[in-house]
Specification:
The complex is a heterotrimer of chains A (355), B (297) and C (406). Chain B is mostly helical. In chain B, 73% of the residues lie in helices and 2% in strands. Chain C is globular, with a radius of gyration of 24 Å. Chains in contact: A-B, A-C, B-C. At the A-B interface, helix 7, helix 11, helix 13 and helix 15 of A face helix 4, helix 9 and helix 11 of B.
């Protein structure tokens, strides 16, 4: 399946993102698959009892956000319970920029990212003094404060009514269908993934990891902890802000309830279940967390046919199953799906001579 | 109504709610001191306690005192189960995993409650007298007075427990240093288990008290989040600080609701404790009574 | 090495292909051909969210009504199928469901809340999908702005105006004008009617106190009511749902307030006296476009039969009636529609003229191409000293053109 050893002869080879022909073929196949997916998605709708393409688009948006959180939590070791609200900042910024100021989507998308980065950095300031659980609590407070702002700053955000935004268009061609939006989202997903992968190979990326592993030691060897922590907050929020902006122009209605603490928890669960600090982890996590409620809906549907009363019970159980899965993962697979995938891959690499 | 009376009225109501926050914060701090676990499921423990008691009283028609005791017994069993099967395997894991596992736990407990009892408000049968008491221009519902008194009784009971009982002293020792306690022959595992039991019991009491004010619904677990400002204000590892922090947060939240709602269009009460929290973290991260952490490379 | 890899790749491709075929095959098996293709109706309900206290029974009513329609000949022989989904009162989830329904070719949706119905109104006009909401928001009844939105209950704007009219009619103290306060949750459902109510109160010369915000999931309203006590109003409007209304009324009793409450349609039902206890007695007045469940009326007969045959042990609320009426009006329009698509059904709905609900609503329902207000008549109920909900009077508001969409 794969070479059992990788031998590098030049630095370029050592630094390459895709190191073996197998991986390259895989990536090419994946790319082709992503390209044609919208055209083959229809038959899946009935089986999953949902709009598959819609789901795929949500996954894409979550992947971008999860990459962002992964940079902060997985690489830099800073816990954030506020990324749900940060995504909301991105969504609202984009909505306000396009609706109230009439700025085209293509400019408001990066601007929304920048605004979110700024907000993220402001709330990241406590991270200079705090760490671990204190930071978790501080970002949780940020979550509630931002949520409150979104709900009550009626003049700016439309309050609890929310805002109605329009679909973007490119050269007069409206990107308003699931299919066209799919290509927009996945272009950005690919960009974000490459960026995140590349980040780990750069100077800031290494500084992040150094801070995560032992920030005092990092400071001693000359890493500017202050700068890189804030930077990490900024980069992370930027990506989640982009995700928020994409979400806003896809769902077409922005409201505060979509960005509650539940979303922050989901983001954290994504990178934990996927595998913290792995680029692929964010992707696995986003897929897993988005598909789970849909997969749970299948037995739910079957059961409600038989016992109609069970309907409501099942819906409240979904959240519990989420919780249970988080618990089980943390106890039995603390390194997440990415690590499990690695183990399986290594096993087969040497099969049948694995040890 | 005179402004002073208005202020007093708000403070008295705040004290009653604050005393419940104090109780719950006490449980939170105990777990943190013993095992360094930040418990995001504290509010859910409270909610489960309230609902179990409610079910005993209304569905099974148990008298109040028996329902109350049975609820406490249930809380102990629940706490032991959680400690043994969820938290014990996590000893030594990084902070984020611990935080996340208690969040997972909170989701499980919440869905447990909502799948059995639904998400809508349920009303306790009246346990305390309903008629309001008037003092000057202040009108206070008796429920608040009883809530405050009951919380105070429990706080005193726990203070005595820590001061004089063998187990209480062992818990304080373990909280001080797990290693030293171990070498003195104290079973730290047992201390962990007991701290969860105590936390679940005080939370259940808090839940029953709050439930008696107006009834319970699924948002009751939000009380668990109010505990964070309280403990951060008091200092994460200070029992006295937790209680005091709870009272202060209760009062501040009610005052901000009473005076600031006009300016911000409502809901200030929900967010004010968190604004306070951020301010404390910025200026005095280890709270009023907390011990400062000193780190060495 | 190379050949090994190729083999693996081929093998893997085959496996993937087989799996994919399996999935697609399963997908096809799930849809056996039916003799008469049912007409799909989308349903967007709240059975788990903050308004589920009133939403669950609404969903049950809609389901039962669908069965009733099918048992009575369906739409000219074709059965209907109501695809009901919960959206937990989240607008974004409603948009997701809407898109799924649209993909299925659905042209008629039974929806729920004010926020999401408003958010969807631009989309449904573009897609020409008829949307019958449980939100009676006044902003949705002007066909010039929202041509595809319909609802069957007296609008919130008319309800709040009728409430103010009621206060004015019953006011006997000539030495001063009545004092009123508006209490509502921070949701479009609560907020939207408030300007209409205030305009009416001002025109009647009332003294208006500061608004109080009480959320739908509140378990206490003490600080808001303590605040309100400073103004000490004679009447207060509550624009919440039943659970939060009960909390407000109980806390008012605890604080010894003398204020009486006028409650919007979603805050006043059979559960209110149960949740609020004695506090509601002689204090709670409800604006009710519909009769309560089980009232003696010709239109109630089929409902009671459905209830007996499907779930005789469950209790029902006025919410059941509300969705039932919505489904009946829909049925009427579907039967008369020239073709089964959005514009035709819209045209048929706009020909609904004095639709007789059999006494389930305070007045017959009429839609015209220029006016989607179903009627402007409501019952005013109150909770009497024994804790029973009794009608006080039936009130009709003038159908003024300037109140359209307000």
């Amino acid at each position: 399946m794969q070479q059992c050893g990788i031998f590098h002869e030049t630095y370029q080879e050592d630094m390459a993102v895709f190191q073996t022909p197998f991986v390259k073929t895989g990536m090419a196949l994946l790319f082709v698959f992503l390209l044609i997916f919208p055209w083959i998605a229809k038959p899946l709708n009935a089986a999953l009892r949902t709009n598959t393409l819609y789901l795929m688009n949500l996954i894409g948006i979550y992947i971008i956000g999860a990459h962002g959180l992964n940079i902060l939590t997985g690489f830099t070791g800073q816990i954030s319970l506020g990324h749900g609200a940060f995504m909301g900042v991105g969504a609202y910024s984009s909505a306000i920029l396009t609706v109230k100021l009439g700025i085209p989507f293509w400019f408001s998308l990066p601007l929304a990212g920048l605004i979110t980065a700024l907000v993220g950095m402001v709330f990241g300031i406590p991270s200079l003094r705090l760490k671990g659980l204190y930071l978790a609590i501080a970002t949780m407070a940020a979550q509630f404060i931002i949520e409150y702002g979104m709900r009550n700053w009626t003049g700016l955000t439309g309050g609890s009514t929310g805002m109605v935004v329009s679909s973007p268009s490119l050269f007069g061609f409206a990107i308003d269908s699931d299919r066209s939006y799919y290509y927009l989202i996945y272009t950005i997903v690919i960009g974000a993934t490459i960026y995140t992968k590349n980040l780990t190979r750069t100077r800031p990326g290494r500084a992040f990891v150094a801070i995560r592993d032992r920030y005092l030691a990092a400071e001693v060897i000359g890493v500017n902890v202050w700068l890189y922590r804030i930077l990490s907050f900024g980069v992370s929020s930027f990506m989640v802000g982009i995700a928020g902006s994409l979400w806003a122009h896809y769902v077409l209605v922005v409201n505060d309830e979509a960005f509650g603490i539940w979303l922050s928890v989901q983001y954290l669960a994504m990178i934990i279940i996927g595998g913290m600090g792995h680029v692929l982890g964010a992707i696995y996590g986003a897929i897993f967390m988005t598909l789970l409620p849909i997969l749970l809906r299948i037995p739910e549907h079957a059961l409600t046919q038989v016992y109609p009363g069970i309907f409501a019970i099942f819906q409240s159980l979904t959240e519990g199953v989420f919780g249970l899965i988080i618990i089980l993962f943390l106890i039995f697979e603390p390194d997440g799906l990415a690590a499990r995938w690695h183990t399986i891959k290594n096993y087969w690499k040497l099969w049948p001579f694995s040890y | 109504m005179n402004e002073i009376w208005f202020l007093l009225q708000l403070i008295i109501q705040g004290l009653a709610i604050g005393s419940v926050y104090g109780l719950v914060a006490l449980g939170f701090v105990l777990i943190y001191k013993a095992s360094s676990v930040i418990n995001f499921a504290q509010g859910e423990l409270l909610m489960v306690g309230a609902y179990v008691c409610l079910a005993l009283l209304t569905t099974f028609n148990v008298p109040f005192w028996a329902g109350f005791l049975l609820t406490l017994a249930f809380s102990v069993v629940l706490a032991l189960t959680i400690e043994r099967f969820v938290l014990r395997p996590m000893i030594g894991e990084p902070v984020i995993s611990i935080i996340m596992i208690t969040i997972g736990l909170s989701l499980v407990l919440k869905s447990f409650v909502s799948s059995i009892w639904g998400v809508q408000i349920k009303v306790f049968p009246a346990i305390f007298p309903q008629a309001p008491i008037k003092a000057g221009q202040i009108v206070v519902s008796q429920v608040y007075i009883y809530t405050f008194l009951a919380s105070m009784v429990f706080l005193v009971v726990f203070a005595l427990f820590f001061k004089y009982s063998r187990l209480g002293i062992a818990m304080r020792a373990a909280a001080n240093s797990n290693q030293v306690a171990l070498s003195m022959g104290i079973s730290v595992k047992r201390v962990f288990a007991v701290s969860w039991c105590v936390a679940a019991v005080v939370s259940a009491v808090g839940g029953i008290l709050i439930g008696n004010i107006n009834g319970v619904n699924i948002t009751l677990s939000a009380v668990g989040l109010k505990v964070f400002p309280a403990v951060i204000l008091g200092g994460l590892d200070s029992v006295a600080g937790a209680v005091l922090g709870g009272l202060i947060i209760g009062i501040l939240e009610n005052l901000s609701g009473g005076y600031l709602d006009h300016f911000f269009g409502g809901g200030v009460k929900e967010v004010a404790p968190f604004v306070i929290l951020v301010i404390i973290l910025m200026i005095k991260p280890y709270g009023l009574f907390g011990t400062e952490e000193i780190e060495r490379v | 090495m190379m050949r090994m890899r190729t083999k693996w790749t081929i093998g893997l491709t085959v496996i993937v292909a087989v799996l994919a075929l399996g999935v697609f095959g399963c997908a096809k098996k799930e849809e056996p051909a039916k003799p008469a293709e049912p007409i799909l109706i989308g349903g967007i309900f709240d059975t788990t969210g903050p308004t589920s206290g009133v939403g669950k029974d609404y969903a049950v009513g809609a389901n039962d009504a669908a069965d009733y329609i099918n048992a009575n000949g369906g739409v000219n022989g074709r059965p209907i199928e109501l695809i009901a989904n919960d959206y937990a009162y989240k607008p974004d989830k409603a948009v997701e469901l809407y898109k799924t329904y649209k993909d299925k070719g659905i042209f008629l949706i039974q929806g729920w809340g004010t926020g999401d119905t408003n958010a969807l109104s631009a989309l449904i006009n573009k897609d020409e999908i008829v949307y019958m909401s449980a939100s009676y928001d006044s902003g949705l009844n002007d066909p010039a702005k929202t041509p595809y939105n319909f609802y069957v209950g007296t609008s919130y704007g008319d309800a709040i105006r009728a409430a103010m009219q009621f206060v004015s009619e019953t006011w006997t103290d000539t030495s001063r004008k009545p004092k009123v306060v508006f209490i509502y949750p921070d949701h479009p459902y609560g907020k939207n009617p408030i300007p209409s109510g205030k305009a009416m109160a001002e025109s009647l010369g009332f003294d208006i106190g500061p608004d109080q915000i009480v959320s739908l999931s509140a378990t206490d309203a003490v600080s808001q009511l303590t605040n309100m006590k400073k103004f000490n109003p004679d009447w207060a409007w509550i624009g919440g749902t039943t659970p939060s209304t009960a909390v407000i009324i109980k806390d008012a009793a605890k604080l010894g307030l003398e204020t009486k409450f006028l409650i919007n349609v979603w805050g006043f039902d059979e559960n209110l006296p149960k949740l609020a206890g004695e506090a509601a007695n002689e204090r709670a007045y409800g604006m009710a476009p519909f009769t309560f469940y089980g009232v003696d009326a010709p239109g109630m007969q089929p409902i009671l039969e459905m209830h007996q045959s499907k779930h005789p042990d469950d209790g029902h609320l006025v919410r059941y009636i509300q969705s039932w009426v919505s489904m009946m009006v829909m049925w009427d329009a579907l039967k008369r529609a020239e073709t089964l698509d959005g514009p035709a059904v819209k045209a048929a709905l706009e020909k609904v003229d004095n639709f007789d609900t059999g006494g389930l609503t305070a007045a017959p329902i009429t839609f015209t191409p220029t006016d989607h207000r179903p009627n402007t008549t409501l019952f005013i109920y109150k909770v009497n000293a024994e804790g029973k909900q009794v009608p006080v009077k039936e009130t009709t508001l003038e159908r003024k053109p300037e109140w359209l969409g307000q």
